[in-house]
UniProtKB/TrEMBL annotation:
Annotated GO MF terms: glutamate-cysteine ligase activity
Pfam families, alphabetized: GCS2
Phylogenetic lineage: Bacteria, Bacillati, Actinomycetota, Actinomycetes, Micrococcales
Protein's UniProt name: Putative glutamate--cysteine ligase 2
Stored PANTHER family: GLUTAMATE--CYSTEINE LIGASE 2-RELATED
Keywords attached to this entry: ATP-binding, Ligase, Nucleotide-binding
Database matches in SUPFAM superfamilies: Glutamine synthetase/guanido kinase (SSF55931)
Role noted for this protein: ATP-dependent carboxylate-amine ligase which exhibits weak glutamate--cysteine ligase activity.
UniProt-listed NCBIfam families: gshA_cyan_rel, PRK13517.1-1
Alphabetized InterPro entries for the sequence: GCL_type2/YbdK_subfam, GCS2, Gln_synth/guanido_kin_cat_dom, YbdK
């Protein structure tokens, strides 16, 4: 069974006003003084799961991100989704406890609801990014959920990348959680997805065909001088340059950790399904990058409240129907991994109570205060809203 790890980019906000606070360094200092949280492992886990738990695998950390108002959590790899959810919550709890000592709260939101200014972490690489990309760098305060799914080889990984392209916009719609930017309603469910496309490498990709072609493109991008290094290859999904994984980067960070687990389970289902299709010699859907960009835009604009573009017909259809098609597309893999019931139940939850963007807007409509939106996000991120 493939292992799955999750990285979450979380915002640090003032405990009273809700505005982002530049306390990442202090938060990480306090986190370092505490014992590293144990990520509980489900009793039915196999050898790979036990290896991950023993510390012989990557992951399990709190780290700096680009801005001083955010930090990133990183779970160890898991095969069991219940254990993965426990790991996500354990690292959130560690971040929340440390941030509290620094006078801040932690929220899982794709963008800050309240206005924020630049506060770049003073690492040489980040300072080079400011010099090279200007406002694109200084305004980049966003929160994503990156899912790493293990692969057997780069060839299999590229076979997967070529075959999951059409479904990534559906993951964005489900996870959309960034309706506000600089204190204003953007009318988008995920404005993070709009902020990201300002980077020269961000967004969907063409089909590569082979690992050789993938690596040739990445090498050419770096050699062009337009980007600084391989870490700046911001494709919606890519081969990780650190781990033997496919890294799916399209989702907003979710307030509810259960939604994070849903995204992770769907990502593994997509990788399993695509790898099987690649192995069987099945061709990927013939989707142009231009059409994929339209699909991503539609998902970022409307989330699950409007139509999505069907990856098979390229026609608009109700979001619930396209989501159902995604689940059916990966159902065999979900069943084999033991994730089918979890995914079905959580999909129903999202369509009953809404995704993160719908939650944020509902709170603003209720109170009229973006500070209340932030407070509600902090409650949800901590898992204290029942």
């Amino acid at each position: 069974m493939r292992t799955v790890g999750v990285e979450e980019e979380l915002l640090l906000v003032d405990a009273e006003s809700g505005r982002p606070r530049s306390v990442a360094a202090r938060t990480l200092q306090y986190a370092g003084e505490a014992a590293k949280p144990a990520e509980p492992i489900n009793g039915s886990a196999g050898a790979a799961e036990r290896t991950a738990a023993s510390g012989d695998a990557p992951g399990g950390s709190l780290e700096h991100e680009l801005q001083q108002q955010q930090i990133e959590t990183d779970t160890i790899p898991h095969t069991d989704m219940i254990a993965l959810g426990d790991g996500v919550r354990a690292w959130r709890d560690r971040a929340i406890t440390a941030a509290r000592r620094a006078g801040a709260r932690v929220i899982a939101s794709g963008t800050s609801p309240l206005p924020v200014g630049a506060a770049i972490v003073g690492k040489p690489r980040y300072l080079k990014m400011v010099e090279h990309f200007g406002l694109t760098t200084t305004e980049q305060l966003t929160g994503a959920c990156h899912v790493h799914v293990s692969i057997e080889s780069d060839e299999e990984g590229v076979g997967v990348l070529d075959r999951i392209r059409g479904w990534l916009s559906v993951l964005l719609a489900l996870s959309a959680n960034s309706p506000f930017w600089q204190g204003e309603d953007t009318k988008y469910a995920s404005f993070r997805s709009q902020a990201m496309v300002r980077w020269p490498t961000a967004g969907p990709t063409e089909a590569f065909g082979t690992a050789e072609r993938y690596h040739e493109l990445v090498s050419s991008m770096i050699a062009s001088g337009a980007i600084l290094d391989e870490g700046m290859v911001y494709f919606d999904a890519r081969l990780s340059h650190h781990y033997p994984t496919v890294e799916i980067r399209v989702a907003d960070v979710c307030p509810d950790a259960a939604d994070t687990v849903l995204v992770a389970a769907l990502c593994r289902g997509l990788v399993d399904t695509a790898a099987a299709a690649w192995s069987a010699g099945e061709e990927p859907l013939p989707l142009s990058v231009s059409m994929l960009r339209l699909m991503s835009w539609q998902a970022g604009r409307f989330g699950i409240e409007g139509d999505l573009i069907d990856p098979r017909t390229l026609k608009p259809r109700a979001a619930r129907e396209v989501v159902a098609d995604l689940v059916d597309h990966v159902r065999v893999a979900l069943r084999e991994n033991g994730d089918e019931a979890l995914v079905d139940a959580q999909i129903e939850q999202i369509f009953t109570r809404g995704n993160g963007a719908m939650r944020q807007r509902a709170m603003l409509e209720k109170t009229g205060q973006l500070s209340d939106v932030v407070a509600d996000l902090a409650t949800a991120t901590a898992g204290l809203d029942g």
